[in-house]
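Narrative of accomplishments. A recurring question from our advisory board has been how the design workflow behaves on a single, concrete structure rather than in aggregate. To address it, we present the structure tokens for one chain from the evaluation set, followed by the sequence designed for it. No filtering or post-editing was applied between the two.
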């Protein structure tokens, strides 16, 4: 039996049957079961922030696992305390900010959803095309009909506005609104960058109506866009921030961080997670943050953005018209709806990317990717684009 047969005979079909069986990874390369190598330009969908098998992360995980692997939250461990302190310091958060740890992006949003309910208001405003996860609360904020419709009715009273449109946002928010929930850049929606000042407008609108501004940085956070957190660009402070993906560098962990009044909504018994704040996940996240800081990977993400913006087009065989995104969250925009074809051709040439829209290819490589791997990837990119576009 092939692995595809075994997959189909044992796993639910929610992902379809994947095209590859990956067996190992190191840095920005992964290998499949036939020994073929791929330049991993999607990094587990913006997760492997410091690449595969980074020695600092490996060492931190093994040391923690061999000391204390899990306890539950019936007792405290040092990991979540240290990690919460570190995140709050990177955020330059006020003294009243607090962190809740969970295991994924959808859970970080679910915690935020529950904080919203504790305002005693129910109405939320979200952006069209946004993605906040798949559990029922988070799904009610994921304004993509194909993902929501089979699961209706969804909870809440949710108004959907066009992303990036501050006027529409202003009209939608009222004194009944619990929260406005936005991604600083829509990742799953197609790497859509809103106009400058959008988050500042959102902040002001929320302040006028006493609504919470909740920013979902599950995909954009932890250095991905060339700052620790993308919202820092606009000099605003959210009331609630959701993180996951890159935080654990491949080890599952999520965080919901609340400021001010929102930080005091959860009391004993309000919310919880058996695995949330697991010491191994926290050790992995602390190691990831250390590598990003020590290796100045925020600067590196910005530098590589410049290189890729130019080179993906220049070596795009006329098929690639432009690039959007920030840092190392990038979409190469095509002149035709050939995204799925290019994703496939890239795979054949040994590059892993993702067609995030019919006319766009998303790249979200490790922040540690080397110049040599970028050069090799561009050679392969040129071959793939010329095959599809030529
Ligand atoms: C912005 C955003 N929020 C939430 C999620 C859900 O995260 P997870 O798949 O870890 O549940 C994602 C995943 O792509 C995301 O991009």
């Amino acid at each position: 039996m092939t692995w595809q047969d075994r997959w189909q005979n044992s796993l639910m079909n929610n992902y379809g049957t994947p095209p590859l069986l990956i067996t190992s990874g190191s840095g920005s390369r992964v290998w499949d079961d036939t020994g073929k190598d791929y330049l991993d330009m999607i990094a587990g969908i913006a997760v492997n922030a410091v690449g595969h098998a980074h020695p600092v992360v490996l060492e931190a995980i093994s040391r923690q696992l061999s000391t204390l692997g899990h306890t539950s939250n019936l007792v405290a461990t040092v990991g979540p305390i240290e990690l919460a302190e570190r995140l709050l310091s990177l955020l330059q958060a006020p003294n009243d900010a607090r962190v809740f740890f969970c295991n994924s992006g959808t859970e970080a949003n679910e915690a935020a959803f529950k904080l919203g309910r504790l305002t005693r208001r129910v109405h939320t405003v979200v952006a069209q095309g946004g993605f906040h996860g798949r559990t029922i609360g988070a799904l009610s904020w994921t304004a993509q009909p194909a993902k929501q419709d089979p699961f209706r009715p969804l909870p809440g009273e949710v108004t959907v506005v066009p992303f990036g449109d501050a006027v529409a946002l202003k009209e939608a928010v009222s004194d009944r609104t619990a929260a406005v929930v936005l991604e600083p850049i829509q990742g799953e929606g197609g790497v859509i960058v809103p106009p400058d000042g959008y988050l500042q407008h959102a902040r002001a609108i929320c302040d006028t109506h006493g609504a919470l501004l909740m920013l979902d940085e599950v995909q954009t956070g932890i250095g991905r866009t060339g700052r620790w957190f993308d919202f820092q660009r606009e000099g605003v402070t959210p009331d609630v921030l959701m993180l996951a993906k890159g935080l654990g560098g491949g080890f599952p962990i999520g965080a919901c961080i609340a400021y001010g009044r929102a930080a005091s909504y959860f009391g004993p018994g309000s919310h919880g997670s058996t695995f949330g704040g697991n010491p191994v996940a926290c050790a992995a996240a602390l190691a990831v943050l250390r590598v990003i800081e020590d290796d100045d990977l925020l600067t590196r993400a910005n530098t590589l953005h410049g290189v890729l913006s130019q080179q993906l087009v220049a070596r795009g065989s006329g098929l690639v018209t432009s690039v959007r995104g920030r840092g190392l969250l990038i979409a190469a925009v095509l002149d035709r709806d050939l995204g799925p074809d290019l994703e496939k051709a890239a795979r054949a040439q040994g590059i892993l990317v993702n067609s995030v829209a019919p006319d766009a290819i998303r790249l979200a490589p490790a922040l540690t990717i080397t110049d040599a791997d970028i050069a090799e990837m561009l050679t392969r990119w040129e071959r793939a684009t010329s095959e599809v576009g030529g």
